[in-house]
Amino acid sequence: MAKIECPKCGEQIETTGIVTVCPKCGADLREVVEALGHERNERMKTIVRDDSVTTHEFIVRTRGLKKIYVMGEVEVLALRDINLDVRRGEYLSIMGPSGSGKSTLFNMIGGLDKPTAGRCFIEEVDMAQLDAFELAWLRCRKIGYIFQTFNLIPVMTAIENVTLPMIFAGMGTDEMMERGRELLTLVGLGDRLDHKPYELSGGQQQRVAVARALANSPAIVLADEPTGNLDLHTGKEIIDLLKELNQASGVTVISATHDLKMIDVSDRVVHIRDGQVERIEHRHEIELEVGGMGG
Amino acid sequence: MLDVEGLVRMSRTSGEEEIKIQRQITLPWSEAIRISIRNVTIRLGRTLITSAGIVLGIAFLSSVWTGGVIQDGLQQARHEQEQELIAATARNQAESDSDETETSFTISEQERRAQSSKRIWLVVMSLLVCGVGITNAMLMSVTERFREIGTMKCLGALDSFIVRLFLIEAAALGLLGSLAGMLLGHIAMIGVFAIRERTLSVVAKMDWGRMLMYLLLCVLIGTALSLISAIAPAVRAARMRPAAALQTEI
Q1: Is B168 domain-assigned?
Q2: Does B19 contact A123 at a Cβ distance shorter than 8 Å?
Q3: With an 8 Å Cβ cutoff, is B146 touching chain A?
Q4: Which value does ipTM take for this structure?
Q5: Domain residue extents for chain A
Q6: B156 at interface of A, judged by CB pairs closer than 8 A
Q7: What is the pLDDT of residues B19-51, one digit of tens each?
Q8: Is CATH 3.40.50.720 the right assignment for the domain spanning A88-113+127-294?
Q9: Nearest CB to A170 within list B3, B11, B148
Q10: How many distinct structural domains can be found in chain B?
């Protein structure tokens, strides 16, 4: 993804942070790689920052969230009674089998659908009280969405996809292109700016989607099965990217998933079954469990 | 570039801290036009199919009107010839044939009336064909992009942005399609008459003032029809909740 230069022999080496020894002269590269990682972290911090003026402990809160879908004459109870508090800067995974209501919950938190009953607060603002203009502003500036099917606009190039939310945010053209380029470079697609989605692989498309989600420095990144359409390896890459973003910039990541790879990086895992919170696991508990199994 | 910051409103929560939730308002016209035109040019194949409906409908309308104007021109020319002939015969035969000329005149008047009602019928029919074709094309082109619309709403697009994008697209499609259709019908009809009369003089005998008015009307009708028929599906799509729009599969 990034190129580093061996300090001894000047060899250009492509690295994703795993290479520690120069393949040509065998020089120790750990320092160079570390410096690169540090630089990348710094860049991430400046480009993707949660610039919220408030510092509420909970960025998302739901109270008694209930959703009933009416399909013909049948009523489907998708969410029963969800009470969930998400801390600022947390990496939260919502897990559950398909049909458990995790996508419905994702839609409620993201302001993409209205609950039948109950409330959902984003930074202590009740979403039910927002009008269309305010809701659009919230979606544009505060929340970044990542979908299972990527949902890039097919006729637009990578950079156009990334800059679209910035157009809505009223950013100037030059600033917008500059930021778009920075974001795409950050996700490792600096050389694919003018590619259309169909010219990119699934993993690359999802990277564009991640960059787009970060367009207006959101406080929350919402991901609905971000690895669902990807193979194991690319899925892991996307998860790592999200975790990296979460750690470097403090952006809150909420991800609906049934990908077990997510558990490793999550601060908390909320298990949902039949539209209810079944149990909540904390990171240290999971680690204990894994450790216990290993020993 | 338009860059109007939204009206800053304090949140309406009961908490002591106040959060600025603003109002979303920007999609500059320049950007909207750029996006729409790109949409039209990039999906060229799809665009051509959509506009084929408009082109064919307007070509029909244009050919009916062109045919009418040409026929009128020919009739006028024939009538003048007849008048000359009658005048010549009248000079020869003096006063005896005055009754007969009157009857021939009434017959041609009746014919003309029948012809004009047939023509109105044809115009109404072609307008209907146009309308149905264009509505269907627009409906399809909006419906197949529900997901895209849902995505745009997630990125912060207001309903009005979506409607604006689709209306610009419909107007561009309507204008280009009806221009092409108008020319197609016009040229085809002139061709038909030129072959039938075995002379290109039909063009010279036409009332060009009236013809141009009809051609302009063709373009106007085509554009207006595609705009009108795009409004309903565009508004419906824009009003969908993002969650619902994202779930649609075609």
Answers
A1: yes
A2: yes
A3: no
A4: 0.79
A5: 2-43, 88-113+127-294
A6: yes
A7: 567 776 678 888 888 888 888 777 777 777 778
A8: no
A9: B3
A10: 1
pLDDT of residue B79: 84
Looking at the predicted structure, is the pLDDT value of residue B1 above 50? no
Reduced to 3 states (helix: H, G, I; strand: E, B; else coil), residue A62 is strand
Instruction: Look up the domain containing B41 and give its range.
Output: 30-67+117-247
Query: What span, in angstroms and rounded, lies between the C-alpha atoms of A133 and B22?
Result: 8
Measured between beta carbons, the chain B residues lying within 8 angstroms of A156 are 38
Centroid of chain to Cα A57: 20
Choice among A22-26, A67-71, A122-126, A198-202 with the minimum mean pLDDT: A22-26
For residue A119, the chain B residues in CB contact (below 8 A) are none
- Contact residues, chain B, for A171 at CB < 8 Å: 3
With an 8 Å Cβ cutoff, are A112 and B15 in contact? no
For A154-202, how does the pLDDT look when each residue is reduced to its tens digit (9 = 90+)? 889 999 999 999 998 888 889 999 999 999 998 889 899 999 999 999 9
Considering all CA atoms of chain A, what is the largest pairwise distance in Å, rounded to the nearest integer? 74
Q: Is residue B62 part of a domain?
A: yes
The first and second tokens of residue B37, run together, are 């035109």
**CB proximity list for B84: less than 8 A, separation 6 or greater:** none
Distance from CA of A52 to the nearest CA of B (A): 9
Tens of pLDDT, residues B65-90: 888 888 888 888 888 888 888 888 88
The backbone torsions φ and ψ at residue A9, rounded to the nearest 5 degrees and listed phi first, read -110, -5
Looking at the partner chain, which of B1, B147, B157 has a beta carbon nearest the beta carbon of A172?
B1
The shortest CB-CB distance from A133 to any of B25, B28, B243 is to B25
Q: Which residues of A touch B5 (CB under 8 A)?
A: 170
CA B28 – CA B161 distance, rounded (Å): 9
Tokens (6 digits) for A234:
């690319």
pLDDT of residue A178: 92
Q: What is the pLDDT of residues B196-215, one digit of tens each?
A: 888 777 777 778 888 899 99
Q: Residues 144-203, chain A: which have Cβ within 8 Å of B?
A: 145, 147, 151-156, 164-165, 167-173
| Cβ of residue B1 closer than 8 Å to a chain A Cβ | yes
Q: Does B192 map to a domain?
A: yes
Position B8, amino acid: V
Domain-embedded: residue B85? no
**DSSP state letter for A16:** S
